[in-house]
Model the fold of this input.
Amino acid sequence: MTPRDMARFGYLYLHDGKWDGEQIVPKEWVKESLHPHTELGMTDYGYYFYLSEGENGREFSARGAFGQWIIVVPELELIVIETGKDSERLSIRDYIGPAIKSESPLLANEQAYARLKELMEKK
Done:
């Protein structure tokens, strides 16, 4: 999967299986797959999703080989995609969470915004 496809997958599950108002995956399946079926110590496991409670509420993640992660935090409407070469991951609690809960807004970066927009428009 490309990172863009991983983000789409996370988006689909964040929105209970809907894409552009169309139910792609049955809502009941999404709910069941994000329900704990096995306990793994500090986290639970649904149908191929790791489930946990974080500082920002419920989190779920899909994990692939060699550091491929799709992390979803519904409370923040946040999807984090990580691709790497090993199992170490960027800590959502250490870096991403604090960054999005900043007391002040980020400074505008017009060049970065234009580049992001350009990348998002590519199919």
Summary: The chain is about 35% helix and 25% strand. The beta strands are 18-19, 22-23, 38-39, 44-45, 50-54, 57-64, 68-73, 78-82. Residues 3-14 form the longest helix (12 residues). The chain has one domain: 3-121.
